[in-house]
Structures are given as structure tokens and as C-alpha cells.
Known about the structure:
Blueprint: H1 2-11, E1 14-21, E2 24-30, E3 41-48, E4 55-63, E5 67-69, E6 81-89, E7 92-93, E8 97-98, H2 104-107, E9 114-119, E10 124-129, E11 132-136, E12 142-144, E13 152-159, E14 168-173, E15 177-180, E16 188-197, E17 202-203, E18 210-213
Antiparallel strand pairs: 1-2, 2-5, 3-4, 3-6, 6-7, 6-8, 9-10, 10-15, 11-12, 13-14, 13-16, 16-17, 16-18
Amino acid sequence: VLENQDLQDSIKPQKVEFRSLNFNSTLHWQPGRAREARDTVYFVQYKVYGQSTWQNKDDCWGIQNHVCDLTTETSDIQEPYYGRVKAVSAGVYSDWSLSCRFTPWRETMIGPPTVIVIHSNKSIILKLQAPRSPYKRKRGSRIPMTNYYDLLYQVFIINNLLDEQHRVPVYEGKDKVIKIENLRPGVSYCVVAKTYVPMLDRSSAYSSRQCTVL
Length: 214
């Protein structure tokens, strides 16, 4: 019995946590101390905070991965959720390992906007598009993150004669089309942008650089 207890403890999943980007929400965990016997498999359940019964996640029932997609199960983005994972190895079941409480609207990270650069002789026109959520409208198009948050765009310009870290903020606001004027012809400029949520005081990562020579 003691050996079983040791095995139970040593295979118990560690660091169970939700990670979420634009409401694509996955549960992650690490294998137990046993450095994972080959035959270890995992079982995942989830529930809304306050519910008494846990739901099995069928696609993550007896899997060898350390990640489980719970995007569909956490689609009510204002609700707090829990996930939990247990391991089985050599016929021995670990206890459940519980995640922290996860509320998608509060905790999802928002991605940067997509940036398209159109240049004329002394100006650059930028077209910005908010990231999209995994949830769909009736017609099938994915709902943009601007439906869920008051998003601002922050735009920065990098003059390639200066060093890479010298990002000059040139715009913050909600416009999807922005004109940056009075630029020098023959100079290469790069643009990066972020999304910013004032209510949560949270910024995305930078978008990928879009560069152009006037």
C-alpha cells in the first residue's frame, strides 16, 4: 500500500494552469516528480465556480499530452472556471490537481492588431485590424475582440537610422485607419502596434514589424 501511495504522490500532475490568448483557452500542467513513466495518462475535468459537479472533457480523457483545449467549455467569458487533472500509471491513480480560478474576460491575453502599411511619398497609411476571438457570428465569421473590450491601438514608429529600441509612439486611439505624415523620403521606417485595454490596464505584445521605404 505504501508503494502505491508513493507512486500516487509522485505521478500527481504539477502546476495546473489556464493559459489564454484572445479567448483561446487551454489547460496546461507538468508531469509529477516521477519524471513520467511511459504509460502515464491524464484525465481532465472542468466546472464553473459554484457548481457542485465536475464535467469530464472527453477529448482529454486518457491522453498523454500535458495540454487540453477548453476554449469551447469556457465560452461564457464572464464566468469563473476551474480545471483539474489526474494521472494514472501502472494502474495507480493520483489525486486530482486543481487549477486556480480562471475568468476568461479578466485573464485572457489580448493579441496585437494586424497592421497593413500603405505608403505614399511623405506619409504612411496604416490599416489596423483587431485580433479575433474563436467565437463565431451566425454567419460564421469570427467575432473581433473589440466586441468584448473597449480597445485602443497604440502605434509606434521605428526610424531605421536610429536604433531598434527607439520606438516613437505616434498614435493612440480607436481609429482603424491612421495616417502618419511629414516623414523623410528615402528613409526606411518600420511600424509596430499594440492593443491596449484601459479598463484592465493591459497591453498586448508588439505586432510584427511592417517596414517600408518612402
